[in-house]
Amino acid sequence: MPHYHQGNRDLQDDFGSRALADRLADRLGRVSFNETDTAFIAAQSFFFLATADADGRPDCSFKGGAPGFARVMAPDLLIFPDYDGNGMFKSLGNILANPHVGLLFIAMDERPARLRVNGRAEVVRNDPLMSDFPGAQLLVKVKPLDIFPNCPRYIPDLALTSASTDAPVAGVAPVEPRWKSMEAFSDVVPPRRL
Prior knowledge:
Layout: H1 6-15, H2 18-28, H3 35-43, E1 46-52, E2 58-64, E3 71-74, E4 77-82, H4 90-97, E5 100-107, E6 113-124, E7 138-150
Antiparallel strand pairs: 1-2, 1-5, 3-4, 4-7, 5-6, 6-7
């Protein structure tokens, strides 16, 4: 997969950064997860997921859970669960129409870091691994095509003071969000599927 398209190249040429961009891609880019990537992803309690529909219209969503909810299972496989949400299925619906995804993992603490993972995703049901992800209603499997550790410059220190009480935990009944019981939505909220 080419690392840069003509739009990238045009701007690199305008700003004189083509040689730097090539060196960064050559030295830092990869197509397989290494041990550092695996540990970094396992320590994160959230990431941002970029998808696009079949016509290329983008969507970006926040995905969160307990640290380790997104896992590198092999050098060429990352898996994360889909938890009960608002039922719109914007991200996962886009994946069904266009499997190209971008994931951005960010640590916003005293040791800021970020990792980009671009690849092809697949939404799976009834997978034997479902039991390894408490609260999962579906799993998303991502095959990386481009992994790139990004400069931590500009990342603020937003140290996590507490984890979300909504993140699924094995053996604990899930907390239903208040909005699901609001009069405007309560009659159309489907039962939770696990």
